[in-house]
Amino acid sequence: MSTVQEPTPRWSTLASKPSSSVIRDLLKLPAGVISFAGGLPSPEGFPLDEIAKACQTVIAKEGKHALQYSMVEGEIALRREIARRETQKGIPTEFEQVQIVSGSQQALDLIARIFIDKGDKVLVESPTYMGALQAFDLCEPEYVSLPCDTEGLNPAAFTEEVCRGAKFAYVMPTASNPTGLTISEERRKLLCEKAREYDMLLVEDDPYGELWYDQQPPASLRQWAPERVIRLGTLSKILAPGFRLGYVIAPADVLDKIAQMKQAMDLHTATFTQLISAQVFSEDLLVHHLPSVRERYKTHAKAMLDALEEFMPEGVTWTHPTAGMFIWVTLPEKMDATEMARDALAHKVAYVPGEAFYAGSAVEKNHFRLSFVTVDPERIREGVKNLAEVIRLRI
Amino acid sequence: MSTVQEPTPRWSTLASKPSSSVIRDLLKLPAGVISFAGGLPSPEGFPLDEIAKACQTVIAKEGKHALQYSMVEGEIALRREIARRETQKGIPTEFEQVQIVSGSQQALDLIARIFIDKGDKVLVESPTYMGALQAFDLCEPEYVSLPCDTEGLNPAAFTEEVCRGAKFAYVMPTASNPTGLTISEERRKLLCEKAREYDMLLVEDDPYGELWYDQQPPASLRQWAPERVIRLGTLSKILAPGFRLGYVIAPADVLDKIAQMKQAMDLHTATFTQLISAQVFSEDLLVHHLPSVRERYKTHAKAMLDALEEFMPEGVTWTHPTAGMFIWVTLPEKMDATEMARDALAHKVAYVPGEAFYAGSAVEKNHFRLSFVTVDPERIREGVKNLAEVIRLRI
Description:
2 copies of one chain form a homodimer. By secondary structure, chain A is α/β, with parallel strands linked by helices. The first copy, chain A, folds into 2 domains: 19-46 and 289-394, Aspartate Aminotransferase, domain 1, CATH 3.90.1150.10; 68-282, Type I PLP-dependent aspartate aminotransferase-like (Major domain) (Aspartate Aminotransferase, domain 2, 3-Layer(aba) Sandwich). In chain A, α3 packs across α10 (271-282) and α5 (104-115) packs across α9. In chain A, a hairpin with a 2-residue loop joins β4 (142-149) and β5. The mean pLDDT of chain A is 94. The termini of chain A are far apart. Chain A is 40% helix and 14% strand. Chain A contains 13 helices and 14 strands. At the A-B interface, α1, α3, α5, α6 and α9 of A face α1, α3, α5, α6 and α9 of B. Chains A, B: GO terms for molecular function: transaminase activity.
């Protein structure tokens, strides 16, 4: 018998690109490390009992429906509940305006595929969410990075020249990943005015809007320019990431294109988890649950802010989030947080180096992202103390 | 206040293409129609009790894990169960060789994106599964259509010229959608030999392999060329389509590219439904369930074959499936099944016109696909009788 020959590799151009694995490798954490590197919500905050109850109801009431194929747009029951929640927050929304997706990440991929041709201009915050860059990268846009200040994205960056011909601006106005910053109502309004003035679309990613500590954040950008805003939401942070459920609220023509594209990509999102989620919402099972999640996140954020205040050497600054899961730390300019990550690991503490959050060549290396939600307050203090020592040795 | 201006549309090239809506429009069925147009499995065959039980177990045993983010490759518990099932069918498989996807449709999209650049050669059966064409179309390949005979795909079509430079051949060797035909062990072997001879990859789509009537179909193509076969499977036909769970079994380098691509597309497939499915499999809850599904499909297939025999006029032929959900009907060459579909609807019966299943310009119009699984045997007889009348009027 002749030897079997291995097939000749024949990847697409897209799949032939080397993947940047620096960050991924860093995130393979040895045991005993205090990890501030995660982006996971706290499992302590999952409404397990509510979901168990909803499971039973759905199987008993509409089991066959829940297990069958569904429509590409999503289950009407869930779309209605999401529309109802949006309406309650002050922006009247019909279920027809809602498309269910398999997590926000899929929304990013869908948006990339319906808008971006190779070389197209896309505006992103600097820094911006790395998952969005990963999704957009598949369609090879040219990024224009918009500088952020201590209050987050500044609409002053949206000049006519910057906006001209851009496919869209991707923004996270509330509790930004990675900075944790929330932009003001005034900035939101101005951003929408600029979008209208320069005929630009806004992709508003809002995964953390429900995770506020003391005060509800300003309204969605849809408040000021509904015809230009493609709003992304997710159930991952208020219900369960393991359901992989997100949604898009957008003008009708955008939703048409998304549905057409999604049909070819995965037919539709799982019926079963959609109906369970709709059941949880319809019984207002989260009414008592969400406040406790908010309280937990607030406590953890405060623990980390206190520890930073207590331990960090002079020259180091950080953001003060009022919602969400992250704090963004800035080292003196000459320092390199990617390189320092190995030292940090040796001191049993992990973070995500900031460079992952910059588009194209706009990279800054003297930042890192801390997540505080899955670590207990005492461990947060210990981890920040270790981290401060690592920095002190290098500063 | 000035009037709000609508945004200027700025779709990608991909999203700008008109979608062929002939078929979609035809499938919007009025009430009272006997539909043989569906591709849905029978909900009577869903193991509702088994799934309800598995839900409770998973929530009680590992609820927090089931609701949390997971790995892009999929939950190990489910990958193990799938590997075990493959191994039981005679092809030793490790869980590392299994990637979980959000339904087989996503596998098709993933494969397109990792292999196909615009204009690349892709081989498909003629006719082939329309969902595959929809997914591949997004990457704009050039199709080469391989003719099928009454025994399905004939490996004689794989000449050196046809295979040279092709990214892969997409085949459905068992209970093909749309023809219902299963190719023999001899043809499978020959196909794999050709693949080795001409250095070609084979994408083996096997959604219906468990739905055999009397005899288990021949082995997966992996039996004869494991290093060249990318095998796609799904839980949609044996467990629940509403879970949207499929899998890919492939060589390591292909799995690496898939995982990298999937990460950017939707992070991972839902944890919750993966663990429920793993639980159903691990308790062998399907052992008693699958035979009853097979029996149901066999009964329905026989009812339709009997009715075709009884009512169809001379000049009409059809396939005799031994597994799966479909029968492929061929009209005399001059007839147009797409055009005839409206008449059929007027006679309260629906089918899928064959033209949807052809790639590029290889279209043949004198075929249609019948599905028998969601219609009761008496209604099958009535529907086929109506359909025969429509044909008789035109033949």
